[in-house]
Structures are given as structure tokens and as C-alpha cells.
Amino acid sequence: MVTAMPAASHPPTPVSPWRHLPNAISMLRVLLVAPICWELLHRHWSYALALVAVAGVSDGLDGFLARHYGWQSRLGGMLDAIADKLLLISCFVILAWLGEVPLWLTLIVCGRDLVIASGALFWRLLIGRIDPQPSLLSKACTLMQIVYLLAVLLALAGWPAPRPALFVWLVAALCIGSGLDYALRWSYRAWRIRRAH
């Protein structure tokens, strides 16, 4: 009688101690919001520029690490979104209050985020859990807002830079386009889910 040999068991894949690094970088970006606001309010443009540049680089770094090493998580997605919104809205509001960026553009930027946040809240209340799924259009919108803010701060700090006015209408168009895209896509998904039940 031949006895079957038990299948060899494979040891579990070790969990990297660095898996929380993208979340830590996102938290760093949240913590940078307060000193950035302080420097902006006191018109220390060079210091504000340096901090915003660090925040912008960290935004790309945490996303790269999460995707490249498979360290994505629901918490990480939420922290990344919160960090982006806090940074961008704070900078736009303060610079608009100081008269350095157009008020109407700031209202569009904040209005888009208000629409998205309200939609997420209603989804959570009426349907259930929501997983952040930023579209390419949304990522382009965030990137262009960062580029615009950097151009504004470069100009204010006296560094050679593209004229910020060149980006104003592009930022506005991307904000409106991505806001409509979010509203239509998630409304359609909600309609399909409600219809299925």
C-alpha cells in the first residue's frame, strides 16, 4: 500500500515592517498643513514654497510605494485623500484671502470638494461602505492644483516661473470636469445598486 505524502506546506509570506510607510508619509503631509498655513499667513513665501514642494513630492512618493510594493490599504487611501484636501483647500483659501489667487477659482476648487464630500456622505448613509477610487481625471485635477500653487508661490518668492495665469483656466476646467465626472459616475452606480435591490 502506497501512502500519499502530505503536501509540502509553504511558510507564510513575511509581512514587511515597511508596509505602513505610505501611511506615515500621508500623515506627515497632514502635519505639514499647519506650518504651511502659518508661513502663508505671514507672507513667508520661500518657506511656504519649500514646504508645499515637500508635500507635493511626498504625495507622489507614498502613492509610488503603495503601488510598487503592494502596500495599498483602505486607511492609506483615506489618509492620502484627506491630506490632499486639507493642503490644497487651506492654501487656496489663505491665498485668496490675501488676494494672491482669484476668489472665483478658490470657490470652484472648494465647491468641487464639497460636492464630492457630500456625495460620499450620502452614499455612506443610504448605501453603505465606500471605497475611494480616484479617477485619472481627479488625479490630473489634484496634480494641476499643486502645479498652480507652486507657480504662484514661485512668483511670490521672486523665482523664475511660468505665469500662474496660464494655469488658472486649466485648473478651473479640471475641477468642474472631475466634479461632474464624480457626480455622474457615482449617481449611476447608486441607481444600479438601488435598482438591483
TrEMBL record:
InterPro entries: CDP-alcohol_PTase-I, CDP-OH_P_trans, CDP-OH_PTrfase_TM_dom, CDP_ALCOHOL_P_TRANSF_CS, Phosphatidylglycerol_P_synth
Signal sequence range: none
Gene3D superfamilies: 1.20.120.1760
Key word Membrane present: yes
Keywords per UniProt: Lipid biosynthesis, Lipid metabolism, Membrane, Phospholipid biosynthesis, Phospholipid metabolism, Transferase, Transmembrane, Transmembrane helix
Membrane topology, from the record: Multi-pass membrane protein
Entry's transmembrane regions: 21-41, 47-66, 78-98, 136-159, 165-184
Reactions catalysed: a CDP-1,2-diacyl-sn-glycerol + sn-glycerol 3-phosphate = a 1,2-diacyl-sn-glycero-3-phospho-(1'-sn-glycero-3'-phosphate) + CMP + H(+)
Family under the similarity heading: Belongs to the CDP-alcohol phosphatidyltransferase class-I family.
Record-given protein name: CDP-diacylglycerol--glycerol-3-phosphate 3-phosphatidyltransferase
Lineage of the species this protein comes from: Bacteria, Pseudomonadati, Pseudomonadota, Gammaproteobacteria, Lysobacterales
